[in-house]
Amino acid sequence: MRKAKPKKRYILPDPKFNDTLVTRFVNNLMVDGKKSIAYRIFYDAVEKVESKVGENGLEVWKKALNNISPSVEVKSRRVGGATFQVPMEVRPDRKIALGIKWMISYARRRGEKTMMDRLAGEIIAASKGEGAGVKKKDDTHRMAEANKAFSHFRF
């Protein structure tokens, strides 16, 4: 176990929307330290969403991220030699982190040609409450619901 809790690192807001959540998303989207390319992909995807949906692209993205973020998850807990999947509430910070990771990973698996198109497609699908990211959230919630009997093992 570590002696002290590590200090919380605060990140700067992004240049276009002045939002720290966008910076967090772009930091996860970034590959090989190429942040300017990651910003370009994100901004182009938001613009494409705006043109397709006809609403504010950033608001649609936030709604999509909200739809993907889980509120409960299962964690493995060993009790007397047996391992139980115990449902746990997800901390707000982790909720956002999981939503971001799921959105990016499922966008990367999509069939469109460029990452900008894939991300835009995933954002639109998630904002409507469909798509792979929302399915992952529903599966996580379903698993937590199925293992509700073990919730007394919470720590």
TrEMBL record:
Domain of life: Bacteria
Keywords of this entry: Ribonucleoprotein, Ribosomal protein, RNA-binding, rRNA-binding, tRNA-binding
Record keyword Mitochondrion present: no
One Pfam family cited in the UniProt record for this chain: Ribosomal_S7
GO cellular component: small ribosomal subunit
Domain named Small ribosomal subunit protein uS7: residues: 1-148
Single Gene Ontology BP annotation: translation
Entry's Gene Ontology molecular function annotations: rRNA binding; structural constituent of ribosome; tRNA binding
CDD domains per record: uS7_Bacteria
Keyword presence, RNA-binding: yes
Family annotation (Gene3D superfamilies): Ribosomal protein S7 domain
Subunit structure: Part of the 30S ribosomal subunit. Contacts proteins S9 and S11.
Protein family membership: Belongs to the universal ribosomal protein uS7 family.
NCBIfam families on file: rpsG_bact
HAMAP family: Ribosomal_uS7_B (MF_00480_B)
Annotated function: One of the primary rRNA binding proteins, it binds directly to 16S rRNA where it nucleates assembly of the head domain of the 30S subunit. Is located at the subunit interface close to the decoding center, probably blocks exit of the E-site tRNA.
Name the UniProt record assigns to this protein: Small ribosomal subunit protein uS7
